[in-house]
Amino acid sequence: MKQQGGRAEEVRIRIAAVTQAIKSTMSTSLGPKGMDKMITQGNSTTITNDGSTILKMMKMKHPIAQLICNISHAQDEQSGDGTTSIALLTCALVDVAETLIQRKIHPVVIADAMEVAKNLCKKTLAESAESIEGEEKMRDCIKISLNSKIVNAYIERITDVTMDVIRHCTNKETQELPMSNVRRVKIKGPMEETAMVEGIVLGTPLKSKGKFAPRTMKVAVFQCTIGQSKPNLDAKITVDSYEGMEAVIREEKAHVLSLCRHIKEKGIDLVILQKSIIRESLSELGLHFLERMGVLVVDDVDRKELELYAEQMEVSPVVDILNIKDSMVGEFMVEELEGHVRIAAGKNICTVVLRGTDDVILEEVDRSFNDAINVGRLVVKQPKVTYGGGVPELVCYTALARYSDPGAPKISYCVRELARGLLAIPEMLAVNTGADAISTVEGLIRSHARGKTTFGVSVKTTGEGDMKKESVVQPLGVSTSGISGAFDGASTMIRIDDFIPASR
């Protein structure tokens, strides 16, 4: 038993070391005044303050670090925002739980208290949230999600584009915004030229050379190759004469030409080809013939992308060039967009053309727009907001600090202690804004006790401020999923008493 207890304590020490390391790394990136991280991988460089991206690119091997990374990634997938907060809050709750364990409270009791605290926080947030109407508060939510990003100099432009997407793609009946209807294409250029265009812009550039005038075209997507068929197995063919070589070349040329003629006879003007792993999807000879026939080609499209194009254009993919049916060909208005192809197809479908001066900036613009559109999607689905600046954590802190259940004194004590973990977010926000953390947080606790439940850490006043007056808002879904996810993650970690490697 002593050995087991010693092992469990050693594991807890290692967990605490990991959470402390992550907290010290991530804390400076929290909030609108947070700092960026430069992450290098070989010859590529990424500059970001997005929590999920930082944790993912650090590629930490410790299982606890990977668990926190997964929690942050889940928040990114679900809400698009709050990825740094959820990682830091998880670490803070684990620290508080470790203190309780040192006071001889069993981890299972603490985990039960975390479940009670989580449910109480969800209830408190739902009661304190405000319903919104119109687009003004939605714009505020989107702006706040972009405040801490590199793109904040173009915050109005990105917000306008996001609002255009929401108006165009939202299903008015179900109030849903299907993310599959929002395409994204990255093209180098000034960031202020980021824009939404209706229809589909193919992510893969046009293979054919030269520009073309906008016109109605017949379009087909191909899940087969345009070129000489090659055997799946390794095979060696020996040609021992010049005449034999000429015969092979003539046969290949005739075969490829017949395929291209069949495509042209079907009236197809634009060919979209799936990327092939085993062999090239389009031979140079095939491209030459198609260009001579006036057929445009987009090559090397990933399978998932190609299937999505086919679904949105409502056509079936071509799997056999000699058996092209009418259902496999669609007719759309097509135009050229800086080397890419825009197809006016699909209802409630659009493409956001993201701009950036280089690849590093383009990637950050893409991440920023992803946050913005996910925040907008949450508000469309659930038009309720809470206030930023650490307000959700402070509101929940007040509720947990007052919790008492005479039938479960230990759990009540743990819930009140866990409330301290929620103060980590306003404390770090205060530090990053240059305010005195202790006096700011203590002042906010007193303000909330007096009923000023919209007060939080202000960037403008470098201290306390009314987030309602400053229009610092965020979707209820971001706050709820962030705090719930942190409690779930911390509860999972404190139950671990050993690391056991699986046999290979």
From TrEMBL:
InterPro entries hit by this protein: Chaperone_TCP-1, Cpn60/GroEL/TCP-1, GroEL-like_apical_dom_sf, GROEL-like_equatorial_sf, TCP-1-like_intermed_sf
ATP-binding in keyword set: yes
Pfam families attached to this UniProt entry: Cpn60_TCP1
Annotated Gene3D superfamilies: GroEL, GroEL-like equatorial domain, TCP-1-like chaperonin intermediate domain
Keyword set includes Nucleotide-binding: yes
Subunit structure and binding partners: Component of the T-complex protein 1 (TCP1) complex.
Protein family per UniProt: Belongs to the TCP-1 chaperonin family.
PANTHER family associated with the record: CHAPERONIN
Function statement: Molecular chaperone; assists the folding of proteins upon ATP hydrolysis.
Official protein name in the record: T-complex protein 1 subunit delta
